[in-house]
Amino acid sequence: MDRLLLVRIKFIDRVTEPVLNQLLDKLLERGIINDEEMQSARAKIRADKARDVIDTVRKKGAKASSVLIAALCEVDPCLFRELRLR
Q1: Is 52 exposed, middle or buried, given 0-12, 13-18 or 19+ CB atoms closer than 10 A?
Q2: Which residues contact 48 (CB under 8 A, 6 or more apart)?
Q3: DSSP one-letter code for 86
Q4: CA pair distance 32, 15, nearest whole angstrom
Q5: Quick one: which of 2, 29, 34, 48 is 20 to 30 A from 63 by CA?
Q6: What top-level branch of life does the organism fall under (predicted)?
């Protein structure tokens, strides 16, 4: 089951710009995205950036999705709980 797909719309609607930037940093640091993917996402407005982040990570598979979920738990525990990603 693709947990990120189930919460995709809520994630896009509710994640904030500062949280997205922190998630991008963590995803880059952990090797899930590369510099080009990070720069591409950073250049977009918030909703498009959120869409790009979640879709890019989902396409990379379950391990990448797990890294994003864990990073979201670290960066924004309230949104993590709201999305019921436990």
Answers
A1: buried
A2: none
A3: -
A4: 19
A5: 48
A6: Eukaryota
Helix axes 62-75, 17-29, angle to 10 degrees: 130
Query: For the segment 21-74, what is each residue's pLDDT rounded down to a tens digit?
Result: 999 999 999 999 999 999 999 999 999 999 999 999 999 999 999 999 999 999
In angstroms, the CA 53 to CA 51 distance is 6
Could you tell me the two tokens for 59? 């396409």
Give me the DSSP letters along 22-74.
Answer: HHHHHHHHTTSS-HHHHHHHHTS-HHHHHHHHHHHHHHT-HHHHHHHHHHHHH
Here the tokens at position 36 are 């080009």
Q: What is the pLDDT of residues 71-85, one digit of tens each?
A: 999 999 999 999 999
